[in-house]
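To the wet lab folks,

You asked to see what we're planning to order before we commit. Fair enough. Below is the target structure as tokens, and below that is the sequence we designed to fit it. If anything looks off to you, flag it before the synthesis order goes out.
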């Protein structure tokens, strides 16, 4: 079941434009700033879990400081948890790339040893290159969300797909183009 059909069942005649607007904003954030959005989201979510655990540990082991011990534990837990969250994003990308390679090799050669070996190599490649892969994944996810939002607005499926694909391609191009800082810096240095 697609997102538009789920929403139409849930809304029962209520205006859908706030939801569609939120979907379009979320899709644009994913397409054009997905790497930052995912890292911030991972930092905050896992950081909040870490703050909860750190607050409990601070209250237990820093009880001589009273409420300050709980606050210190929560702050330390938040930052440590946030850093773990960002590391988990890299691990997740590596895992997805490695698993995809594993499945592909299993389909091609049906050799589990070769599939595991290739899967592990691609897992490491995914870990190393996750900063390059993450914007592509988030842009594509944002494109699918935009497609559903445009369908909710009542646009033709073909037109929705074309518009979502164009915006997604623009987002990928922005992520992959060379940085303007490096080219501006390199032209500012005279080569004599």
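Sequence we intend to order:
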């Amino acid at each position: 079941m697609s997102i538009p059909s789920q929403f139409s069942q849930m809304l029962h005649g209520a205006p859908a434009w706030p939801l569609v607007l939120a979907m379009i904003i979320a899709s644009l954030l994913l397409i054009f700033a997905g790497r930052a959005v995912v890292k911030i989201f991972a930092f905050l979510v896992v950081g909040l879990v870490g703050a909860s655990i750190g607050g409990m540990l601070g209250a237990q082991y820093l009880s001589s400081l009273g409420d300050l011990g709980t606050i210190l534990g929560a702050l330390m837990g938040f930052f440590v948890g946030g850093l773990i969250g960002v590391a988990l994003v890299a691990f997740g990308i590596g895992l997805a790339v490695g698993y995809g390679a594993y499945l592909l090799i299993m389909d091609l050669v049906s050799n589990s040893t070769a599939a595991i070996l290739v899967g592990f190599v691609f897992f490491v490649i995914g870990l190393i290159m996750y900063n390059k892969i993450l914007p592509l994944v988030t842009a594509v996810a944002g494109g699918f969300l935009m497609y559903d939002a445009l369908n909710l607005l009542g646009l033709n499926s073909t037109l929705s797909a074309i518009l979502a694909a164009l915006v997604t391609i623009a987002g990928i191009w922005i992520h992959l183009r060379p940085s303007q800082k490096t080219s501006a810096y390199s032209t500012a240095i005279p080569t004599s």
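Structural context that might help your review: The mean pLDDT is 82. The CA atoms of residues 102 and 117 lie 8 Å apart.

Thanks,
Computational group
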